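Hi V.,

Quick status before I head out on leave. The structure for the redesign project is tokenized and pasted below; the design run finished overnight.
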């Protein structure tokens, strides 16, 4: 299984979450969504744990680097095009949200959808009641601003794309603290993500 470790090598700059938006100039399909990301230290810890899981479950495929690990919340523009009006409206919604920080727990590994040789391998499980409540509050704000909202939600973090992997496998719980959320732009197919906005999770607005 030594080859599995190569899946979790050093991240290239193109895979990092950039803070300087270039969406106005791109030509690839775009996807904009709200998400929660772990801080850098936590992301490195999760990445290391996932590396061990890849060995334990003999996973083969392509790993997501620590810098882009996230829990998706709501999409705000899934049509492949981004407008200034859409981004500005989404940022105003982010500004309006007030919610305390909370823990996110994963205690399962399983595969989601996709083709046989291109399945999302995810961390999932756990009660995550506060995460669900936060997503609901954000969804209400989006709906009130006339954004379409998908009520379906299975909290998860994709850590790699791999070959066929069946069943839900119990793992030692991974728990980390969510302290902020982001509006993220994904350049589809380029493994490139950019933060368009970030907001702290806290009890009172500052």
């Amino acid at each position: 299984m030594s080859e599995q470790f190569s899946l979790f090598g050093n991240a290239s700059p193109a895979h990092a979450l950039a803070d300087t938006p270039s969406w106005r100039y791109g030509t690839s399909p775009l996807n904009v969504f709200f998400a929660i990301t772990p801080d850098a230290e936590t992301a490195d810890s999760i990445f290391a744990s996932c590396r061990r899981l890849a060995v334990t479950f003999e996973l083969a495929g392509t790993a997501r680097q620590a810098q882009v690990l996230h829990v998706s919340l709501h999409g705000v523009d899934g049509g492949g095009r981004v407008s200034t009006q859409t981004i500005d409206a989404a940022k105003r919604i982010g500004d309006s949200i007030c919610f305390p920080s909370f823990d996110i727990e994963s205690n399962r590994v399983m595969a989601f959808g996709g083709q046989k040789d291109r399945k999302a391998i995810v961390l999932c499980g756990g009660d995550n009641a506060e995460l669900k409540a936060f997503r609901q509050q954000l969804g209400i704000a989006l709906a009130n601003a006339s954004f379409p909202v998908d009520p379906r939600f299975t909290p998860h973090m994709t850590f790699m794309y791999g070959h066929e992997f069946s069943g839900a496998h119990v793992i030692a719980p991974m728990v980390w603290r969510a302290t902020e959320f982001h509006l993220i732009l994904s350049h589809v197919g380029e493994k490139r993500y950019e933060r368009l906005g970030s907001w702290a999770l806290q009890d009172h607005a500052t």
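Above is the designed sequence. Confidence is low (pLDDT under 50) at residues 1-20.

G. will cover questions while I'm gone.

Best,
W.
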